[in-house]
Amino acid sequence: MFNKLKQFKDIKDKAKQIQQVLAQETAEGSAGWGKVKVKIDGNQQFLDVSIDPSAMDDRAKLEGMIKDASNDAVKKIQQMMATKLKDVGGLDLANELGDMMKK
User: Fold this and answer.
1) Region of 33 on the Ramachandran plot (φ > 0 left; ψ -120 to 50 alpha; else beta)
2) For the whole model, what pTM was predicted?
3) How do the pLDDT tens digits run along the chain, 103 residues long?
């Protein structure tokens, strides 16, 4: 019983470490030839939004650019996260948790 609790604590600590590593990573998505830019961190929190004043003339177009820039940033950060997770052992963490649940 205590062994499982220790394993769970170790997994929790490792997950916290991975989350801290990912929080330091950022990616920027853009749309409309750079008129709209969105910056996101590894925890998928939006850090910054930049809109060129000329993009504000057409509301529907601007809304689409914001959506496209956001999707671009999320795609980039997810690719970065996959690489980082391999580097810091995040995939091992998922396997450890799965193995622990089977026992």
Assistant:
1) left
2) 0.72
3) 677 777 778 778 877 887 888 888 999 999 999 999 999 998 889 999 999 999 999 999 999 999 999 999 999 999 988 887 777 665 565 565 555 445 5
DSSP E strand boundaries for 25-67: 26-31, 36-41, 46-51
CB-CB contact of 69 with 75 (8 Å) = no
**CATH label, 20-83, candidates 3.30.1310.10, 3.30.2130.10, 3.40.50.920, 3.90.79.10:** 3.30.1310.10
Q: Which residues contact 89 (CB under 8 A, 6 or more apart)?
A: 14, 18
Domain range list for the chain: 20-83
Q: What Rg value do the Cα atoms of the chain yield, rounded?
A: 19
Q: Which residues contact 49 (CB under 8 A, 6 or more apart)?
A: 36, 37, 38, 39, 66
